[in-house]
Amino acid sequence: MNKIVPDDGSYREFQQGIRKKVEDIIDGKVVTICMACVTIWVLFGDDIRTLSAENKDNDYIFFITYEICLSLFLIEIFMNSIFIPGYKFSFFFWLDVVATISLLPDIPGIRDPFLALFNYKLYDSDAHFDTSPVRNTTKLDYTSRGIQTIRYIRLVRIVKLYKYFTKSTENEEEENESQIDKMDPEYLGKNLSDVTTRRVIIGVLLMLLLLPLLQPGTVDNAPYFGLQTLFWTGRSGCNDPTGFGCGITTSNYVSNEGWYYMIDWYANASYPLLWLYIPDMLNGGVIGNVSRGLTWTEVSDCAGKKVPSACDKRDEEMELVTYTPIECYNKSVKGCEEIEAFARFDVGEHSRSQSRGNIVITVFVGIILATASVAFAYDTQKIVIKPVTRMHSVIKSLAEDPLKMAEEVTQIDIKESILEETINKIGTLLQMSFGLKGSEIMSSLFSEPEMNLIKLGSKERSVIALCTVQDFPSIIDCLQEEVLVFINKIARIVHTCTTRWSGTACNNDLGIFTITWPETKASDALVSLIKISAELHRATDIMAYKSNPKIVTKFGDNYLVDIAMAAHIGWIIQGPLGSNIKVAPGYISPSIDLCKKLIMAVEEFKVPLLLTGEFYSSLEEKGQNACRRIGNVMIQELEAFMGLYTFDLTDEVPLPDHRRVAEGQFDIDKRKPGDPIILNEIDIEDLEFTPEHLFLFDNDIVMMQRSVPTQFQGVFAKGLEAFEAGNWADAKQILDEALKIKVADGPCISMQEFMEACGMKPPEGWSGSRNL
User: Fold this and answer.
1) How far apart are CA 73 and CA 93, in angstroms?
2) Residue 422: its pLDDT value, please?
3) Which CA distances in Å does 403 have to 203, 395, 399, 407, 408?
4) Which residues contact 93 (CB under 8 A, 6 or more apart)?
5) Where are the transmembrane segments (predicted)?
């Protein structure tokens, strides 16, 4: 008889047909629902057994169901490995393997023979004379928690439920996989959501498995020490002088009633006592069963060295406590091989409590994982899939028809996507690049439909100040690449103090900071400049440059950051400068040029801060009182005279109220206008804090003003008056007196050097002013 063998194509189609049918059965609703019910049963079955079964003889029914569930899990793994493409060694393959292994500890017929290979029994309540008599320790506590952790492995089965509940969705995706672009946003988003959910599930389960081992150990040794006390108390009644532990005392430790009381106390100390095997003080200290106390009686069905079969307690519901004297355990004394005390307790309620807790934990974890899965899917859909899909659609439409751009873009809600974060970052970078004023300039430029650089700028009066680091070219030469770190540390202080006192940092050009304030904020500007000087001489990261080898080589050991500052009030033109290739906010004004001239004159007048008369006249009264006039200058470009003023700054500044806790951290005054003034912890309610009050109460300003002797001001004013009047001989004598009061005063020395350079005779046509 000839055997008919189909050709290769037909046989392959036959195989694929069989595979498809088996795959449809495995992924069908019947099998899926059945296996989901099996998984739910093995999640809660053992706890239900502990809680519901009144007699341990009914446990075999549960164990049979566990064996059936184990068989179904093995069959499922085997069939999926053969007929489901890509299943073998995949995420769900290993998940099923672990879930199946986690079922083994619940089946005694498999668990106990395996543990017997290691001479270990998970639950054993029988008394053996070779049982270790050592009390509970942290090591034993970790062992018990390790066993509990093994039971928690069954929570891995929760992930199997996730697999069953998401199986239909996966099947639909696999059917459409050939038709979906792998780079499609929706496809990528779903994969991202699925992978994230899996990672979260595994992370939560690992945390639950490891958490019992990471918690600090707690040990209850009350049953052990109580048994030890009962042993020696009972042995005190021994009347055999040759027996172990006998003859230590001639009388019993306690009375008969006290003996019964001790037994009652021990029976109710931890768990209910079932059986007690100790020396009986009332029976000559003979070791045996003690069946009663005043109120406690032995549970005869669960008494004895070997638990009777009539005992209705499971092995896991009983705990055996053992005590053996160390001499007997070490066998250093003969004749006491079987001198050992036992106590068996009923821990059934504790086991049932653990089962109830396990059920709650399982349900809670299931809810958490389900919620996390839904939340991640929703967030991915909202934050990634939806906006990116629409963006993808817009770009695709633009590629096909650019005229659709306006219509499609208006439908995109940027706030619903991660694009908002990206745009915010770009906006932050632009704000940091342009600053507050620059952002306003650029905003007005780009607010128009078409960028137009051919337009007028805006003109306004402002307080204008320049701060520059002296010898900056030499510092660049010394620090090289490190100069950026140096200048940024200074910029942090300059920008912080400026912003705190209502100013705006406009520009930074090779260590020259251009700062502006509203015209009415002259007092704020002066406070800000004083604070900048104080913080630069106080900041730890700036002071550290005193020991920088590169700086020491050039400037010596006593280097301090030397800054020059100048302030004026005038108009300024601001607007965008550049072209369509490169544009930046620009600030143009003769007032800026005047401030640059004043910066150059700092060395001539020998003060770090120069203020123009117009700036001085805009100060509040207390601010004006804190400044001093140092002379008049002639501005040739303006063909006008201008008074110059200064605030006496010092290198020695007080520490802030709170000392620095990190390198480079500095404090500035946190008070706002309108806050009550607090002086020496006394609240002055009738005064409100304004920048003007800082000239009376601020620690930096007050300490700097104290550095100028009171009598110096009058002497210097007389010397300046004689200098401007042309009485230089008198001026020289007065200024000498002033220098005795305030040594090395810069303006005094500057006037003396100017007079000496002119031969102590005023120039022809002397008007009391020097050329700037």
Assistant:
1) 11
2) 57
3) 49, 12, 10, 8, 10
4) 77, 80, 81, 87
5) 26-44, 60-79, 196-214, 359-378
Q: What is the mean pLDDT of residues 451-474?
A: 84
Torsion of CA 374, 376, 377, 379, to 10 degrees: 120
pLDDT of res. 689: 55
CB burial of residue 718 (10 Å; 0-12, 13-18, 19+):
middle
CB 652 within 8 A of CB 556: no
675/482: higher pLDDT = 482
Nearest 5°: the CA angle 275, 279, 284 is 135
For 759: left if phi > 0, alpha if psi spans -120 to 50, otherwise beta; the answer is left
Rg from Cα positions in the chain = 46
Amino acid at 186: E
Q: What is the fold of 457-703?
A: Alpha-Beta Plaits (3.30.70)
* Sheet order of strands, 286-289 included: 286-289, 273-280, 341-346, 318-323
How far apart are the C-alpha atoms of 47 and 155, rounded to whole Å?
13
86, HSE (Cβ side, Cα atoms, 13 Å) = 4
pTM above 0.85, yes or no: no
Residue type, 529: L
| Whole-angstrom distance, CA of residue 570 vs CA of residue 617 | 13
- List, for residues 195-219, the tens digit of each pLDDT value: 777 777 777 777 777 776 676 666 7
Confidence of residue 152 (pLDDT cuts 50, 70, 90): low
The mean pLDDT of 7-11, rounded to a whole number, is 59
Domain(s) labelled CATH 3.30.70.1230 in the chain stretch across: 457-703
How many residues are recorded in the chain? 772
Q: What is the mean pLDDT of residues 562-591?
A: 83
Contact 754, 735 (CB under 8 A): no
pLDDT tens per residue, range 466-493:
999 888 888 888 888 888 888 888 888 8
Q: Which of 771, 628, 760, 622 is nearest to 698 (CA)?
A: 622
Q: What is the predicted pLDDT for the residue at 662?
A: 34
The answer for 180, left when phi > 0, alpha when psi is -120 to 50, beta otherwise, is beta
3-state secondary structure 25-76: HHCCHHHHHHHHHHHHHHHHHHHHHHHHCCCHHHHHHHHHHHHHHHHHHHHH
C-alpha closest to that of 489 among 430, 566, 548, 553: 548
Query: Residue 771: in which H helix or E strand, if any?
Result: strand 769-771
| Contact status, residue 17 vs residue 74, Cβ threshold 8 Å | no
pLDDT band at 646; cut points 50, 70, 90: very high
Those residues whose C-beta lies under 8 Å from the C-beta of residue 692, and which sit 6 or more positions away, are 523, 620, 621, 622, 623
384-441 pLDDT, tens digit each: 677 667 666 655 654 444 444 444 444 444 444 555 455 456 556 666 666 667 767 7
Kindly provide the residue ranges of all beta strands, DSSP E only, lying in 613-710, ordered along the sequence: 628-635, 640-646, 676-679, 682-688
Distance CA 308, CA 126 (A): 9
User: pLDDT confidence of 104, banded at 50, 70, 90?
Assistant: confident
